[in-house]
Design a protein that fits this description.
MetI-like fold, 76% helix, flat
């Protein structure tokens, strides 16, 4: 065997691609709105060709006309005002209570076991099933709807909050204690900033749950509200108005998601 055969094979140097940029996905508004446009176009084509029955699913043009009639008549604003008030009050009540309990469960041993046990026992209960009980307790008016929404938001907020507190690095807390920081300073400067990203992510889930419970509560006992509008349209087989109500709910959810996104950037700008 020749010495040349034993010599190491020289290969051309390949540049290594730079990949140390982290996972930093960016939003693409054009792609987001484009997906809606494509969906609406396909929906309209299906209705125009007869592939989709107009009785079962009215075309986007028919839905737009129905939505415009609701806007011009002023009925939409009445329903939106009623739903917005119920959603805001119920979500705030459930969120504030859930944050308080979640921090207690996440930080103190005396609250951990009973808090986790009660939340685990009550969370799986369908909250809308408790609406008749809330009506007996608080009446058919607004308080029963506030209670339904707040009760539904409370439990996921508690679970999300104490999970976020648990995920804060314990060595940072011990470091603060070693520097003789007060408990309030540790909470404000270490625990809260560390838990805040997870808490804000949980707000998106709890707001979706709040919208679902809002519609269900309004369908059972409300004269005004998006849920009452959808129920009335369904009872009269006005599918164009029914889908218009669903579209309003979708826009409602997008608006809340946008507001939470602004809140996220405002509170987490330090990242």
């Amino acid at each position: 065997m020749s010495p040349d055969h034993l010599a190491p094979v020289k290969t051309a140097k390949q540049p290594v691609r730079f990949r140390a940029v982290g996972f930093n996905p960016r939003a693409n508004p054009l792609a987001a709105w484009g997906s809606f446009v494509v969906l609406i176009i396909l929906w309209q084509i299906g209705c125009s060709t007869g592939f989709i029955s107009e009785l079962a699913m009215p075309s986007p043009v028919a839905v737009a006309k129905s939505l415009w009639q609701l806007i011009v008549s002023g009925d939409l604003w009445v329903h939106l005002a009623a739903s917005g008030q119920r959603l805001a009050v119920g979500w705030v009540l459930g969120t504030v209570a859930g944050l308080a309990v979640g921090f207690l469960v996440g930080m103190f041993s005396w609250a951990r076991s009973p808090g986790v046990a009660l939340v685990s026992a009550l969370f799986p209960i369908p909250k809308i099933a408790l609406l008749p009980l809330f009506i007996i307790w608080f009446g058919i008016g607004e308080p029963s709807k506030f209670a339904t929404i707040g009760f539904g938001v409370f439990f996921p907020t508690v679970i999300n909050t104490f999970g976020a507190v648990d995920n804060v690095a314990r060595n940072l807390i011990r470091m603060g204690q070693s520097f003789d920081m007060s408990t309030w300073s540790i909470v404000r400067k270490i625990i809260l900033p560390g838990a805040l990203p997870t808490i804000l992510s949980g707000f998106r889930i709890s707001s979706s749950i709040a919208i679902i419970l809002l519609v269900a509560a309004e369908m059972i006992g409300a004269q005004y509200g998006i849920g009452a509008l959808i129920l009335s349209a369904g009872s009269l087989y006005q599918t164009d108005q029914l889908i218009a109500g669903v579209v309003v709910l979708s826009v409602f959810g997008l608006a809340i998601s946008w507001l939470l996104g602004r809140l996220d950037k405002w509170l987490l700008g330090w990242r």
